[in-house]
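ESCALATION

Customer reports they have been waiting on this structure for their group meeting. Please prioritize. Original submission:
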Amino acid sequence: MSLILNLILYTLILAATSSLATPRKPKNLADKFFFKPDIEDARVSPGNHSLSFIGNNGQRALFSHDFETGKRRSIKAERGNQIYDYYWVSPDQVIVFAEKLGIPAEVFSVNRRLSAVEPCDYVQVYDLMPDTPDRILIKDTDKSEKFFDLELFNLDSGSRKRVAKNPGHVISWITDKNGFARIRQWVDEDENDRFEYRLNEEADWKEIHLGTDSFGILFLNEPEKVLSFHRPAGKNRVIAQAFDCALNEFYGPRIEDSDYDLIPETFILDPETEDTFGFSYQSDRRRTIWFKHEHHAIQEKINAAFPHTLNDIQGFALDETHAVIRRHSDRNPGVWLLFEIDTGHTKLIGKERPWIDPAETASTQSITFPNREGTPIHALLTQPSHGVARKGLLTMIHGGPRARDYWDWDSEAQYFAALGYTVLKINYRGSSEYGLEYSPYSHLEAIRNSVVDVADGVRWAIDEGFSKSGKAAIYGSSFGGHVALRTAAEYPELFSCAIGYAGVYDWVKEMDREFAKEPIYWKLKQFKYYGDYDNEKELWQNASAVTLADKIQAPVYLLHGGADEIVASRQSRLMHKALKKAGKDVTLKILSFNKHGMVSERPTIRFYENLAKFIGSAL
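Update from on-call: job pushed to the front of the queue and completed.
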């Protein structure tokens, strides 16, 4: 039996318990906010009999909470390996994945009672086969990581059968409710999304017209009908509309938000029947679109009972008399409840971070401020709670650029607010879900606009009195690392220190590396996102932080994962070298086992402790 790097599976440690392990007690603020939660990656099981989740039992373990009895069971991997993912293959079988230092180390299956352990091969799960026990759909990336085939994997025998062969250009397979690949997607020479559909596995592929700028496809309850999330030609925002694949035409009204792109965050399906209930997306808050009136009515009843939190219905239980809900907000990290639909009575399943009292946390406001061009720029502002001594302003910049900071629980913002910092997170132009006018596709535009918007946001916050010293600390990761260092270089008078984690500081060297690694894939939409890159490298180089290293006046702290496969750690070394050559105050720390993010809990805690020390000494 094979596994990545020929790792062999042995015996697993099984622990059956009626309650969670003894709650952990944080020793300091970093522990408090960066301990992994007691409930993570929670899912209602097929059959709706229990809630499964990853939690802590001396190590990251898999738990199940029985809705009827309240009994809990858990299972741990051997040798201290940490469970990081799992899938319900059927109502009575779960496949579980464990890792060590970010590397897959064990795979096994268990029954619904988390017993009867059976080792499995490591595979990349693509989809489940609800009507075919002991089978899952997996990716075959032997020929290409990007243009992969699909195989049917037998968990019992380990055998594989190819069910979808990639002709060499397909970038995505869309599966129906039974797990069969019914739609495939590719990109044409004009950088438009194209789609083909087949009636069944034996039928020929035929082209369908789902939109040339696609953001997702959701199969509806009728087998030939889907919901297409796409940006219509010439329009600013992403919409959703039903589509009949057999007739090759849209039908029904469009679903749209006047202020935000309708990009699906979660598809809401019944875990047993795969019935499509609705989907969620992000506007100023997370929103849910329900397809049935009765589900919408239940959501309204829950929201009326808990008006100060986001209330996500994760499924239904106990003969559909109860809704399984997760309550969370900017001040509440998450609590799971059974909500009796008729009476409104609730029963606690568990809290994600029971050691945190929401009454003692900081609140976050969604705000806008005008940049120098008069454009309202979106941001989130978290201020220290009453009684916490205020130290200054910390600006935190997300990566991407096609990403966004959302109004919700945010351990980073809460940690620094508890230390006394006002935290400003800026969704600069280029951030996702604000429409094409706010966030055009051009990566180079985002590289430039992000610096303008962040500088103007810092000036606004200083003018509003959020900085005692008249300066701010700035911290960004990935693309945000570029923003942090470039803004500190162009506007040195604004900053007391600058921090970059896994940042891109020399765009030409990083883009050349990425294009060389996957030349065919990157060229699919190269002009849309990267313009005439080959003839515009001078523009990219001039926009890089490394070219202005001599302009930075504040102390700089650079960090990078030594095993980062997204942005080469060479980027931080180049920036460090340029700053040293310019005689600047700079510290470089390469985190050996970390990738583009942290691989485990303890390094994460140390990471934020070190950031706090650096910022504290600078401010």
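Sent to customer with the following note: Residues 443-463 form the longest helix (21 residues).
Escalation resolved.
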